[in-house]
């Protein structure tokens, strides 16, 4: 294609720009046509079967109980509140699983590179066993073979008269807000701000003089001392309600139901096996010369790993680690196998069966998992860009 002065541009199929534009128009037209056809067929079938559509059913009373709810709930509440409860339960499992799997995965990943033969082999066995067993089977194992086989509340395992583990779950003290709560919150915020300012000052001082500062211990002291002084002045921020055995069950306190414990433990153990391999490969990607250089400066193995190896390995670890977080969030839907009231089991299961609004319920459930996955991806991508190497 050529363009001469005073001449019009000729449109030719041999022009790659024209071909690309044409193909994009055809693809968009095909997608729109398929979407419109699917909508018309679905709407026609719903009309013929007399099935109403829309989201008005969310205002109707649910009429059933929920085993675990992080907010107040009664059977007369609406399906919309049931949706919120299912969403919160899903987020609870995802958050706890991500934190525990990350900690366990990093420990196992580093252990696989240990010079201690026993530790390295035990870490290898852990990875090879748990990552090769389907997560649903692991969930069923922890639920039926571990938690449901525990003794009843009267014969529960007692840990210091504070924690009680039985076939009903884990009973623990419940925190209740006291008079000094908000003052305590302000003191914690003040302590965090002070720690941030202290770390910035310590970093500038180290860059200027080369003299290190014990940021960890000073920060820990600030985080403990400032809120403690606030509690002494304004009173305790929380009161603790202890669980007590009455009849055949515990009364008071918090209870983590067996379904939650089994699901969280299974997803943590399963995902940590993959994270361990990601951590191991990330550490191995760092040149051994970095370790030798750190040792030549007098750093021991621990500080070398924390301050030299891990910060460089994170640039390799973060992208695949994001995929594991997404898998954990989506694998939480396997809770339907043991009846834990999360989105799939509670909303796409019970609510769908009661209302018959299959399209709306499934659309809402899919949108929730899509939103959770996109949020995790955005957060991890932001962190990945923040730690990326800056070209000079």
From TrEMBL:
Domain ABC transmembrane type-1: 87-380
Transmembrane intervals: 21-39, 82-108, 129-150, 181-203, 215-240, 260-279, 334-352, 358-383
GO annotation, biological process: amino acid transport
Membrane topology listed for this record: Multi-pass membrane protein
GO cellular component: ATP-binding cassette (ABC) transporter complex
SUPFAM superfamilies: MetI-like (SSF161098)
Pfam families, per the entry: BPD_transp_1
Superkingdom as given in the UniProt entry: Bacteria
Keyword terms of this UniProt record: Amino-acid transport, Cell membrane, Membrane, Transmembrane, Transmembrane helix, Transport
Subcellular location: Cell inner membrane; Cell membrane
Main location class: membrane
NCBIfam families, sorted: HEQRo_perm_3TM
Protein name: Amino acid ABC transporter permease
Organism from which the protein derives: Pseudomonas laurylsulfativorans
């Amino acid at each position: 294609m050529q363009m001469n002065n005073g001449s019009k541009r000729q449109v030719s199929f041999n022009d790659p720009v024209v071909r690309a534009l044409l193909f994009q128009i055809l693809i968009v037209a095909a997608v729109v046509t398929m979407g419109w056809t699917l909508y018309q067929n679905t709407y026609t079938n719903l009309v013929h079967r007399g099935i109403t559509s829309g989201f008005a059913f969310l205002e109707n009373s649910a009429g059933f109980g929920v085993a675990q709810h992080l907010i107040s709930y009664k059977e007369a509440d609406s399906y919309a509140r049931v949706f919120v409860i299912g969403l919160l339960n899903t987020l609870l499992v995802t958050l706890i699983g991500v934190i525990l799997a990350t900690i366990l995965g990093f420990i196992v990943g580093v252990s696989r590179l240990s010079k201690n033969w026993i530790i390295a082999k035990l870490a290898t066995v852990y990875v090879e066993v748990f990552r090769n067993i389907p997560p649903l089977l692991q969930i069923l194992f922890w639920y039926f073979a571990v938690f449901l086989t525990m003794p009843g509340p009267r014969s529960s395992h007692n840990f210091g008269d504070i924690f009680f583990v039985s076939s009903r779950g884990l009973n623990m003290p419940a925190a209740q807000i006291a008079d000094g709560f908000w003052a305590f919150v302000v003191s914690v915020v003040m302590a965090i701000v002070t720690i941030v300012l202290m770390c910035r000052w310590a970093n500038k001082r180290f860059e200027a003089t080369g003299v290190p500062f014990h940021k960890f211990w000073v920060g820990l002291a600030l985080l403990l001392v400032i809120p403690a002084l606030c509690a002494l002045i304004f009173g305790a921020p929380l009161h603790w309600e202890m669980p007590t055995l009455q009849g055949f069950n515990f009364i008071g306190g918090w209870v983590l139901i067996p379904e939650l414990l089994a699901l969280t433990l299974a997803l943590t153990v399963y995902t940590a096996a993959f994270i361990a391999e990601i951590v191991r490969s990330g550490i191995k990607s760092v040149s051994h010369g970095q370790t030798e250089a750190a040792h030549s400066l007098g750093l021991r193995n621990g500080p070398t790993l924390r301050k030299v190896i891990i910060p460089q390995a994170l640039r390799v670890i973060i992208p695949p680690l994001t995929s594991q977080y997404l898998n954990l969030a989506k694998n939480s839907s396997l809770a339907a196998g043991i009846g834990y009231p999360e989105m799939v089991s509670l909303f796409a299961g019970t609510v769908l069966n009661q209302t018959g609004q299959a399209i709306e319920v499934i659309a809402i459930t899919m949108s929730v998992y899509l939103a959770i996955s996109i949020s995790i991806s955005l957060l991890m991508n932001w962190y990945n860009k923040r730690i990326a190497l800056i070209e000079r």
